[in-house]
Protein 1
Amino acid sequence: MNKKHLTFIIIIVLVLALCIGGYFLINKNQNEDALKFKNEYESLNDTIRESDGAKYNNVNIDENNPIKYVTVKETIKLLESKKAIIYVGASWCPWCRNMLEPMLDVAKKLNIETIYYLNLDDEKSNYEIQNNELKQINKGSESYYELLDKLKDYLRDYELTDSNGKTYSTGEKRIYMPFFITVKNSGIVEAKGISRTLEEGETKYSEMTEKQYKDLYDNFYDTFSKIYLTSGTCNKNEECN
């Protein structure tokens, strides 16, 4: 074997090693995020929410879930990607917790490997009503306002209502959780909230009924399949390939 052939073989081996190493690194990070997500949400099971004294509803999340944590800046870049599902939520949000099961079930059915997870707790602005006046408690980050601008056509106004029913406008838009952004071919397909509709006598902490589960499942299926399902691959009642 001459020197030229040996050099070529070494280069091929190094490239393969880098590809294999990169693959395992990506999967390692994905698995770490999946476990982090599971622990973050399950840690609140059977605990009391300080803001209203209610008990959080329990969630049980598979450690092999498709969740990958992203920052606001990474989310903005994802809006220009070929394909993406972005979930904006928080573990303390009751509405977020009670939609997890159908969301993850649909992701499993459609063989979705990644759902990007954005938590805005440390990025968003917050206001309070104090002495009949609207006060800004903290200002959002620069990236947060950039994201709001990107999504402005899909967002509701950020308003607060006091105990007397008076409404105060902050002059900002708001991402109300749980919120989902689906992207395909560098464009936003949908950006909307997905949560269950409460029946009479229920609260956001009530156990979900079979009908509510089905309604959410169908909503997620219709939303996710627009970007992850090719025509003829499968339907809601069949196995997907």
Protein 2
Amino acid sequence: MTSSRVSLDDLAEVALDVRVVLGRASVRIADVLAYTPGTVVSLDIAPDAPVALLVNGVAVAEGDIVLSDDGSLGVEILRVISTADGAAQP
């Protein structure tokens, strides 16, 4: 049996699912069914709090929402979360 090692270069083209979590809300089904245009859903986060950046469902960083040069929204990474112990790193 031959053993071959995989390098980071080999994985460079693998697509990952990246999501940004602004906050969460816990609501009743009745409330969701009553949503109409203009309904405001309050989140459990302060307006200036960092957002979580998840890759394939795992939190990997925290950051601030920013406006990109092309006018779209982006995330400026403030802290990377260590995979070893889960602690945030500045």
Protein 3
Amino acid sequence: MSLAPRQVIGSPIFLHSLDGDAAALNLEKLTFMKDDVAVYNEAWLQRLLFTHPEILPIDEIEPIFKPLIPICRELPTKAGPVDNVFINSEGLITLVECKLWRNPDARRDVVGQILDYAKEISAWNYEDLQEAVRKTTGSTGNVLYEIVTKNAGDVDETTFVDSVTRHLKRGSFLLLIVGDGIREGIENIANFLQRHAGLHFTFGLVELGIFKMPASLAPGYLIEPRVLARTVEIERAVIRVENLSVSVEEPAGQVITHRQAGSRKSITEAEFFEELEQANPEIAELLPTFLKQGEELGLTVTKRKSMILHWQDLNGITHNFGTIFPSGTIRTNYFCHSANEAGNIAIGEQYLGGIARLLGQATVRKKGNPWTWTVVQNGKDPSILNLLRQSEKWLALIEETMRALDELAEA
């Protein structure tokens, strides 16, 4: 597991304009206090992140955990309560610990603390997690699934429960420590991580700078998240510290990949194809060729726990041509929403209709807002197999749809 430290960024300056004679205004940085009666304390930070999870720079750490759907605060575990718990529609869990980085004991203990939380939760099953959330929120029923569907739209319940169960068993979590003035030595962090290298977690240190806007403007705050360090997920490793840098010794027979410029093959991609092979070997065999052809066509293929087929039109609007899951199914929601945003929802309807015809015995379900409209078979996400068997026709449909969207943008 490697740690990539980041540079510290200076305090921001506000300018009314970029003219040479414009006045420069220093923004007032908020000071956090440990005192429970202080306005800006750990509890305040915890509430802020729970209400506005978009503050957390997940794209810079591990985008697979997006979007963060708030589940609860102070989730009880045997190791203590977790400050903030989030989940996404893929069943991936994010644990956040909020700390003010002034107390020396806190600096030593907080990394080990969040790892202990992860260790405890990785021993849970779906119902254990569900029960803990029920106790915290005072809710009843399948509260996890209900929260996710309320925030993410139509999600297959069985697939979601299975995904959460699998990620709990593997310990596939995103662990974030968020605070102000984080300056912990990287050697100490590595020592804590080494204890729990058997879990499949991703770890990040995030420092928040929160500044008041100038009094001459409308009241407001500027929030500046800084990723100070993050890990790359691996299964097991020997972590070494040499000359204040952290390196990973690869176990025999295992490939460990690190975040770098350009494309990368991640552990999550390998896991995706492993699960896909078990679900349907023919899909696992056909999919790589289709993905390569799609990239040549202009699709950006996000290869992680799911395969997302993205493309951006001439107006900069991003369209999702389909999300492929390791079960071998495909979900086509969001496309009508982006087509509508581009100015012609009929283009989206034509694409979904074309997908349904290629699949055979499939229909386009138009329920709720356009971003939930999707192709279904027997009320569920369809298998991608028939599409891959007719990959040339599917690629032609995608190319025709791209052309229609670009012509719309040029009109």
